[in-house]
Design brief:
Order of helices and strands of chain A: EEEEEEEEEEEEE
Structural class of chain A: mainly beta
Shape of chain B: globular
Largest interface: A-B, 25 and 23 residues
Structural class of chain B: mainly beta
Number of strands of chain A: 13
Distance between the termini of chain A: 33 Å
Oligomer: heterodimer
Number of helices of chain A: 0
Helix content of chain B: under 10%
Distance between the termini of chain B: 36 Å
Strand content of chain A: over 45%
Number of strands of chain B: 11
Largest sheet of chain B: 6 strands, mixed
Largest sheet of chain A: 7 strands, mixed
Shape of chain A: globular
Number of helices of chain B: 0
Radius of gyration of chain B: 13 Å
Strand content of chain B: over 45%
Radius of gyration of chain A: 14 Å
Helix content of chain A: under 10%
C-alpha cells in the first residue's frame, strides 16, 4: 500500500496523559500536513512541514501540541496533558510541490482520539 | 475557523438522480478542491480546480468555479448508493499553503 498511513487508528486515554501519533506520508511527497476534525465539522488545519521544516502552525496548536518531522519522512504529533476538548479525529495528509503548483493532498485514515 | 460554507447541509436523493452541492468562500484562492468522506473515515480527493479555470470534469463529476462570486458547485450525475458520504469543499488561499475546509454537505442516495 503506497498511501498515507497513520498509527494508531484509535487511542483512548485519560485526561492529563500524553499521547503521540505517527504519520507516514506517500514516499515522494515533500509536504506533510496535520488537521483535526470534530464531529459534524470539516477538518481544521493544525500545521504543515515542507521536508523537515515546520513552516506554519495554526493558532489552534496550543503549547501542549508539538509536531516533528525529523528526517523529512514520517511525522509525529504529540499532545501533552490531554484535555477532553482534544477528543477528535487527527488527520495527516501529504502532497507534492512540483513546478510551483499546489497539488491535491492525500489523506490518511486518521487517528481517533478519545480523552476520558 | 472555517472559510466557507456548503449548501445544502444535507441532501437526500434517489439513485439515478443528479446531486448538486454548492460552496462559498471568503478570500482569494489559488485553487479549490472537493473531497468525499465516508462515515468516520479518511478523506478522498475528488477533483481540483485552479483559480484560472471555470469548469472541470472527472467521470460523473462536474465542478464549476466562479471567482467573482467566490463560489463553486459540484455536480454528481447519475448518483449511486455508493455516493452516500459527506462532501467537503476546501480552498487553498492565494498566498497560503493549507486547505481551508467548509463544514460539508451530507449526501444520502437512496436505492
Amino acid at each position: 500500500d503506497t498511501g498515507v498511513s497513520q498509527d494508531p487508528r484509535h487511542k483512548i486515554t485519560k485526561r492529563g496523559q500524553n499521547v503521540t501519533f505517527r504519520c507516514d506520508p506517500i514516499s515522494e511527497h515533500n509536504r506533510l500536513y496535520w488537521y483535526r476534525q470534530t464531529l459534524g465539522q470539516g477538518p481544521e488545519f493544525l500545521t504543515y512541514f515542507q521536508n523537515e521544516a515546520q513552516l506554519e502552525k495554526s493558532r489552534l496548536l496550543s503549547d501542549r501540541f508539538s509536531a516533528e518531522r525529523p528526517k523529512g519522512s514520517f511525522s509525529t504529533l504529540e499532545i501533552q496533558r490531554t484535555e477532553q476538548g482534544d477528543s477528535a479525529m487527527y488527520l495527516c495528509a501529504s502532497s507534492s510541490l512540483s513546478g510551483g503548483l499546489f497539488n491535491e493532498q492525500f489523506f490518511g485514515p486518521g487517528t481517533r482520539l478519545t480523552v476520558l | 475557523s472555517q472559510q466557507g460554507e456548503e449548501d445544502p447541509q444535507a441532501l437526500s436523493i434517489q439513485e439515478g438522480e443528479n446531486a448538486t452541492m454548492n460552496c462559498s468562500y471568503k478570500t482569494s484562492i489559488n485553487n479549490l478542491q472537493w473531497y468525499r468522506q465516508n462515515s468516520g473515515r479518511g478523506l478522498v480527493h475528488l477533483i481540483l480546480i485552479r483559480s484560472n479555470e471555470r469548469e472541470k470534469h472527472s467521470g460523473r463529476l462536474r465542478v464549476t468555479l466562479d471567482t467573482s462570486k467566490k463560489s463553486s458547485s459540484l455536480l454528481i450525475t447519475a448518483s449511486r448508493a455508493a455516493d452516500t458520504a459527506s462532501y467537503f469543499c476546501a480552498t487553498v488561499p492565494e498566498y497560503g499553503n493549507k486547505l481551508v475546509f467548509g463544514a460539508g454537505t451530507i449526501l444520502r442516495v437512496k436505492s
